[in-house]
Design a protein that fits this description.
Length: 857
């Protein structure tokens, strides 16, 4: 047997690790022994998801290394080994620790380092870069000290750089309790990815989230703050910013120091010069990732995204194993799709319309907070690129069309209500997954070869295994190829939500950990955790903050209130049927006045109070509970309201007591957790003042009883409800609604409202009628019992928190400084009420004549 050759890989980041994976998956004959020398003490981790480290994701979850790698005798991973020199004649690598490793081939995957502008004071304590997990640990420690509550800190941070990582750093500072300010020397945020229009909207959306933005200015110097506390950052426009921390995120530079010491040629702007198969001037040495500069006429260009780096790794693996792969222009795609501070941002192709004769088609909707631009050829027939801000849902189908003929008018492709493209509109040459350079043709071949679900496509093509933005297109492609797409909830559960509901109901499982251990895999994700939390709540598994359940909830359920755009919350007490006593109104008014809240009567006949800080919520609830109110579940996937007209009590046209029925229905179904929110209405006559036919279940009075309508929805795709049954008496009406709701809860998909649930139901309304009124499936007794259990087991979630000291501890802006208000929250006055600072950015003024209701003057 021929002895294995030795491949030394310098650097164990994302790209270096991809090379190891590619080599081991292809090298069936074990012709290469791989030695990896990583300067960091941690194995490769996902730098793209770095900011999730501040959301509770730990280092192990970010790791890209499977345990099998350490058990592979053909791979030796040495961490904390900084390579200092390479003897190219003897082919030996020497490290700072004194170790020497011989090689037959050497791959430089040293990545990049953060650029820190050489401003005076950049190295003071409190100044950081945002690049590694160790950097994040240092930033976190400084932020914790700043918000300790001893009065020494300013609770603010300055981020130098408004690009991708800069906005990620700003988000991290906000998560740590600091008020972030972003300083960008360019005239707009993310100048590389987005154009002027997209940058303007991005700035407004980011500012609305409490991040101050300063563009067109640079950092001049950094000095210690007064009395040695904090820092003062001086800008080129004369402004001085107080800060506890300064984070430099002003771009990256290729880490090519080792290559320079070896004597390898580098590009004009740095980076090891390589040819189209990633080989350097030394035939035994390759370079991949951010440290490599693909030679273009001798100048060379580096790429700071992971997708081109992965393509380089695949090319080198192929070359080392005897192939002839080369880097192509498609491999160097710089398209990106990101979510920054909760804002969707995407750019692809010629985003800045640099092509001669290129035309720009723009749909800018400042009200909706979206900016969509397509760059097309001068004849408007070929897509060249685009920019999407605020809504990047079209990215997955538009990006693969770059360079292809447009399937429709460009305006129709980005306008609201325009053409919706499916995967069938894409040619086989279209690159579906840019991170791993996977075309539609490759995916179709994989499907024909038996890859009949998304996990199988991921496994055999790598599509969807990096950023994940192409996964919806994978599902669409499977369907267009005639494959029945799996209804699995996510990669951690092979069951649909309805199947998981039955498993939980029949087995008595009461925790997510037990469910995923017995019936799933892995640790779960942001898809399955809230879905299972909803199932557990629907089955009456105690308060949603009990034990492990608390960690499964989304932001709104986590704090039992609706998160608003400036970081405050809204409080909505239940007002069944819209009926409230004068004393109740006074109590709500006093609470709103005493806590400085904005008040508004909602479309569902309730009063919404906006602007509550998280630490104020329990005190507000205490006042409301003492006045006889309870949670209105405005935050939950649950029953929201049962709207009513005044019925026979007051209206001369009313034929039934709509108010009493609405109150009874709302009290019966309050707190009922479901796949999506539920709304209802009861109208006392055919004039339909309660708009019952636009509700998930609506009731309209007749001379002899009640007509029941189901499956109505508002939202993006409004639906009128359909008549399920006529002239029901009150007892039969409630029994039918009970069964309708429980059947929906049992069988609907995650986040599926009643209208699409019914539309997807085989047999539609007739089948539903057979199941819940004729008991065709023999499950009506179970549905009745489930609803009876809910009604008897209901308890107010607000009261549950107030009576539990442990639950109360979570209601604080800063864990280490209970009671301290968030300094980033600011209000201004509008028509006598507080509204968030910046509410009117980008909007048109509205002229109002006449007096302000409820305002003296």
């Amino acid at each position: 047997m021929t002895p294995a050759q030795t491949l030394v890989v310098v650097g164990h980041g994302m790209v270096g690790h991809r090379l190891v994976e590619a080599m081991r998956s292809r090298d069936a004959g074990d012709t290469w022994r791989i030695v990896v020398l990583g300067a960091e003490t941690r194995p490769a981790y996902d730098r793209v998801a770095l900011s999730s480290y501040f959301e509770g994701v730990d280092a192990d979850e970010l790791s890209l290394v499977n345990p099998e790698v350490f058990a592979d005798e053909m791979v030796e991973l040495r961490l904390g080994e900084q390579v200092e020199q390479v003897d190219t004649e003897a082919r030996v690598v020497r490290t700072a620790s004194g170790a020497s490793v011989g090689y037959d081939a050497l791959v430089l995957a040293t990545g990049s380092y953060p650029f820190v502008p050489p401003v005076p004071g950049h190295d003071l304590p409190g100044c950081f870069v945002y690049r590694t997990l160790d950097d994040l640990d240092a930033i976190k420690a400084a932020a914790v000290e700043a918000v300790s509550g001893d009065g020494a800190g300013r609770r603010s941070g300055v981020v130098v750089g408004g690009g991708l990582l800069g906005l990620e750093a700003a988000r991290a500072l906000r998560l740590l309790g600091l008020s972030p300010q972003v300083v960008e020397i360019a005239p707009r945020l993310m100048p590389v990815q987005v154009d002027e229009g997209g940058g303007a909207l991005l700035r407004r959306l980011v500012s609305d989230m409490g991040v101050a933005v300063r563009t067109g200015v640079s950092m001049q110097r950094i000095e210690p703050g007064p009395r040695g506390r904090g820092l003062v950052a001086a800008l080129s426009d004369g402004v001085e910013l107080d800060a506890d921390v300064v984070v430099f995120s002003a771009g990256i530079r290729p880490e090519d120091g080792l290559a320079r010491r070896i004597g390898l040629p580098v590009g004009e702007r740095g980076g090891v010069l390589v040819n189209d198969h990633c080989r350097t001037a030394d035939d035994r040495i390759y370079a991949i990732g951010e440290c490599a500069a693909i030679s273009t006429g001798g100048a060379g260009r580096t790429y700071g995204l992971v997708a081109p780096g992965y393509a380089m790794a695949e090319v080198v693996a192929d070359r080392l194993l005897g192939g002839s792969a080369t880097i192509t222009e498609a491999d160097l795609d710089t398209s990106t799709k990101l979510k920054l501070l909760g804002v969707d941002v995407a750019s692809f192709g010629d985003a800045h319309a640099s092509t001669d004769g290129a035309l720009e088609v723009v749909v800018n909707d400042p009200v909706a907070g979206t900016y969509q631009k397509l760059v097309v050829s001068d004849d408007a027939r070929t897509l060249l690129g685009g920019v999407l801000v605020g809504d990047a849902s079209r990215y997955a189908t538009l990006r693969p069309l770059v360079g292809c003929a447009l399937p429709a008018d460009p305006v129709a492709l980005i306008a609201p209500g325009g053409v919706e493209l499916g995967s069938d509109a894409l040619p086989d040459s279209a690159q579906i997954c840019s991170c791993n350079a996977v075309t539609k043709g490759t995916l179709r071949e994989a499907i024909a070869g038996g890859a009949h679900n998304v996990p199988a496509l991921k496994a055999c093509t790598r599509a969807g295994t990096s950023c994940g933005s192409c996964v919806p297109t994978l599902k669409s492609l499977l369907a267009s190829e005639g494959v029945e797409v799996s209804k699995a909830l996510c990669e951690h559960f092979s069951y649909s939500r309805a199947e998981l509901f039955e498993i939980v109901a029949s087995t008595g499982v009461r925790t997510f950990s037990e469910l995923v251990e017995r019936h799933g895999t892995g640790r779960g994700c942001d898809l399955c955790k809230p879905a299972v939390a909803s199932i557990l709540a629907s089955l009456g598994s105690g308060h949603i903050h009990d034990g492990e359940q608390a960690t499964l909830q989304d932001t709104n359920d986590h704090f039992l209130a609706n998160l608003q755009r400036n970081g405050t919350y809204s409080v909505v007490p239940r007002i069944p049927g819209g009926e409230v006593t004068p004393d109740g109104l006074i109590a709500i008014g006093e609470v709103a006045r005493d806590f400085g809240l904005y008040t508004k009567i909602t479309g569902g006949q309730r009063i919404d109070m906006f602007g509550a800080r998280v630490e104020q919520l329990p005190a507000i609830w205490r006042r409301l509970v003492d006045a006889g109110f309870e949670s209105g579940h405005a935050y939950g996937k649950a029953l929201r309201t049962v709207k009513s007209c005044v019925g026979t009590d007051w209206c001369r046209y009313g034929v039934q007591d709509s108010v009493s029925l609405a109150v009874a229905l709302e009290l019966r179904y309050r707190g009922l957790r479901s796949p999506h929110k539920l709304k209802s209405g009861v109208s006392g006559c055919a004039r339909e003042c309660a708009e019952a036919r636009s509700k998930d279940f609506g009731v309209i009075a007749t001379e002899t009883g009640w007509n029941l309508y189901v499956g109505g929805n508002g939202g993006f795709s409004p639906r009128h409800a359909q008549l399920l049954a006529s002239d029901l008496d009150t007892e039969m009406l409630m029994r039918t609604i009970d069964r309708f709701l429980m059947f929906y809860i049992r069988t609907a998909d995650r986040l599926q409202r009643t209208a699409p649930w019914m539309e997807a139901m085989e047999g539609g309304l007739d089948h539903l009628r057979e199941v819940i009124m004729e008991d065709s499936l023999g499950i009506c007794d179970d549905l009745d019992a489930a609803m009876a259990k809910h009604v008897s087991g209901y308890s107010d979630e607000w009261r549950g928190v107030l009576e539990d000291p442990e639950k109360l501890e979570r209601f604080t802006s800063f864990v280490n400084a209970p009671g301290t208000p968030d300094p980033t929250i600011e209000f201004v006055d509008r028509r006598g009420q507080p509204v968030p600072v910046g509410y009117d950015r980008g909007s048109q003024p509205v002229l109002i004549a006449g007096p302000k209701l409820g305002v003296a003057g």
